[in-house]
Amino acid sequence: MSKTKKSEQNHYEMLFIIPNKFTEDEAKVQVTKVEELVAAQGGAITYREYWGKKRLAYEIKHNHYGYYSLCEFDIDRAAIAKIDNDLRLSNDVLRHQIVVAPVLSNETRARQKSLSEKLAVKKEDNEKKVKTNEEEVKKNSTSTEEAINSSKELDEKMEGILSAKDLL
């Protein structure tokens, strides 16, 4: 046994995208196949989350949408290279990323989820406030333009009155 390499199992997190060429049900079957690939290499899936169909940030292989899935698993470090290679060669997975992840308890996951939901609500509130402020600015700029136009009209009338020869 080497002194520098650990032979124990590490905890990994994998996010992968299934192409839009599949339906929702077929995509779930593909997710199951990827999870079976991990299990076939001796991995034990500890957590899974299916995010569903989302728009991609940029086009990948002529796909604008994809089905996102996240799973966490425990596996030997040596098996990661095989999983990575199989997913890279697969036509049923657009992109994937495997990273070493800390082991999180269900309480920690629930806390993180509630925090992210609170942040989403705050973000929505801020967007509503910005929209309201923009509408107010638009109203104010319209009334300012009307005031400028009316002052120009007044200036023209005054100029006409002052330049009249009848007054002299």
Summarize the structure.
This protein is of the alpha+beta class.
Helix/strand order: EHEEHEH
Main sheet: strand order:
2-3-1-4
Q: Under CATH, the topology of the largest domain is which?
A: Alpha-Beta Plaits
Low-pLDDT runs of 5+ residues are none
Name of the level-1 CATH class of the largest domain: Alpha Beta
- Name the average pLDDT: 84
Overview of this protein structure:
By secondary structure, the protein is an alpha+beta fold. The protein folds into two domains: about 10-105, Ribosomal protein S6/Translation elongation factor EF1B (Alpha-Beta Plaits, 2-Layer Sandwich), CATH 3.30.70.60; about 110-160. Helix content is about 50%, strand content about 25%. It contains three helices and four strands. The protein has helices spanning about 25-40, 75-90, 105-160, and strands at about 10-20, 45-60, 65-75, 95-100. A four-stranded antiparallel β-sheet has the order 2-3-1-4, with helices on one face. A hairpin with a 2-residue loop joins strand 2 and strand 3. The longest helix is centred in the last third of the chain and has 57 residues, at about 105-160. The chain is elongated and about 105 Å long. It starts with 9 loop residues before the first strand and ends in a 6-residue tail after the last helix. The mean pLDDT is about 85.
